[in-house]
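User: Okay, second chain of the day. Same drill as before: sequence in, structure tokens out.
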Amino acid sequence: MSGTDNEGIRLNKYIASSGLCSRREADSLIEKGKVTLNGVVAVQGTKVNEGDIVEVSGRKIRPDDDMIYIAFNKPLGVTCTTDKRDPSNIIDYIGFDERIFPVGRLDKNSSGLILLTNDGSIVNKLLRAENGHEKEYLVTVNRPYDKEFIKSMESGVPVLGQLTLPCKLKPSGDKTFKIILHQGLNRQIRRMCEFLGYKVTRLKRIRFMNIMLGDLETGKWRYLTSDEKKELLKDI
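Assistant: Same drill. Structure tokens below.
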């Protein structure tokens, strides 16, 4: 464990170094009995040594320098799979030195922002629709849409045997709009548009929760900033 000596590192500092919260907030978590060290409820002043396992509310915590969080601007044609048998898999495309995996997926024919990490503890929390995490997309359809289209999209349409959750649509052209979803059904936006008689010709994710695609070039990736990581982990 980086940054420790023979006497270990104070527990609150160890938790804070994971990016989960501040030292003061870590102290509060310890006082509330939410922190365990090697399966035993920890107390203030506890030291963490090499090989120790720290958990906060059942989630394993590691120093931030052990955790990888990447924002990637996925090009068309790249598949969000770790299966190396697929020649278009996202892992080989990025060529990162350590084992990482995508959080969720974007269709092969869609582009834009996708997160990759080695922190398996956050994936399910990020993807569960009931957590209401926002995802924003820029969408182009094959013909001009009208107010009824907007109203129907926002109120919900039948997709895969269920009505989609209410969402927000912001027009940005006669065929182009931004849409904010709180769920991620398979090919959801394409299916919603198809139900209303439209075909999606371009779909690009531009935001995932607090992470913005911004001006990141297609096919390039970047590490999340410390502020982005802190906000992301706080929200889940």
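The first strand starts at residue 9 and ends at 10.

User: Thanks, on to the next one.
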